[in-house]
């Protein structure tokens, strides 16, 4: 009985570590607002948190919050998005300005090799 409980606890712990994570990225400066969320699909966890979730846009600053999944309310989602030359995938949820959807959809499908979805 103790072995079964221990096995179940270990499996639950391991499953939670394998579960995809997400990061919500929000600009915190006085420029045009940016808000998006990146849902990890198959990126190694430390690479996702230390690299993929660290925006590098000159002269901009951001807050990054980690969560289990992206919040609802996105106007568009790029499923299976890849960085050119990298096989890792993520789903990128966009919240800022729905007028950007045509440009982001084209980028998603043509550059990121993803599939655009309008929830």
UniProtKB/TrEMBL annotation:
Keywords: Signal, Ubiquinone. It comes from the Bacteria. Residues 1-20 form the signal peptide. This is NADH:ubiquinone oxidoreductase.
């Amino acid at each position: 009985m103790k072995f079964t409980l221990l096995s179940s606890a270990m499996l639950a712990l391991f499953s939670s570590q394998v579960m995809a994570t997400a990061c919500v990225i929000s600009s915190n400066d006085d420029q045009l607002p940016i808000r998006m969320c990146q849902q990890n699909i198959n990126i190694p966890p430390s690479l996702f948190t230390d690299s993929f979730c660290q925006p590098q846009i000159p002269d901009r600053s951001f807050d990054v919050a980690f969560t289990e999944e992206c919040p609802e309310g996105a106007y568009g989602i790029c499923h299976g998005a890849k960085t050119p030359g990298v096989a890792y995938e993520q789903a990128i949820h966009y919240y800022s300005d729905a007028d950007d959807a045509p440009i982001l959809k084209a980028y998603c499908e043509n550059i990121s090799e993803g599939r655009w979805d309008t929830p």
